[in-house]
Design brief:
With 172 residues, the chain is of the alpha+beta class. The chain has one domain: 3-Layer(aba) Sandwich (Aminopeptidase), CATH 3.40.630.30. The chain is built from four helices and seven strands. A seven-stranded mixed sheet has the order 2-3-4-5-6-1-7. Strand 5, helix 3 and strand 6 form a beta-alpha-beta unit. The chain is globular. The protein starts with a strand and ends in a 15-residue tail after the last strand. The mean pLDDT is 90.
């Protein structure tokens, strides 16, 4: 789990040329955003990204989702969603800590600064709202360089877990 303290004004986002950042528009963005997230998380370890109905229920419509469309930031190239930071004003661990529940940039748009711009946009909005810190979960072994991105954004490791696996063989 990585965290950033927002006691000072975060750095302003430097949005790459040709990319815009806007907030989520209910009734319009659900399908295209879900498709972008599925594509961006295709190589993520663990379970596959949830199907559309499950995702919509858990993240947008379900009780306890904490959905606030003004805290979902979409990076767009013309009208195409190329990345997103889906955030909540509080986390399950702490009501005074915002959560970036999903941060994703589709493969063809990676390594252009879009992820950093999305994070800084979110951090700026959290700070404006008086939320003192933000956190997000990350796979420390992520080959995409996500941990380094979060460190560049000013985040630090707050705590971690280790997962161990033991293969059981029949007849052993």
């Amino acid at each position: 789990m990585m965290r950033i303290e927002l006691d000072t004004t975060p750095a302003a986002p430097n949005v790459p040329g040709g990319i815009g950042i806007r907030t989520f528009e209910p009734g319009v963005d659900e399908g295209p955003l879900h498709a972008a997230l599925v594509e961006a998380f295709a190589e993520h370890w663990g379970e596959p990204f949830p199907g559309f109905d499950q995702w919509r229920h858990e993240e947008i419509e379900g009780e306890g989702s904490g959905f606030d469309p003004s805290l979902w930031f979409l990076a767009v190239d013309r009208d195409e969603i190329v990345g997103a930071a889906c955030c909540r004003a509080s986390s399950p661990r702490s009501e005074d800590t915002a959560e970036v529940s999903d941060l994703a940039v589709r493969e063809p748009w990676r390594r252009r600064g879009i992820g950093l711009a999305l994070l800084r946009t979110a951090f700026g909005e959290f700070h404006r709202r008086g939320i003192p810190r933000a956190e997000l979960g990350v796979d420390a072994e992520n080959v995409s360089g996500a941990t380094r991105l979060y460190e560049r954004a000013g985040m630090h490791a707050a705590f971690s877990w280790e997962f161990w696996e033991k293969e059981l063989r029949q007849g052993a």
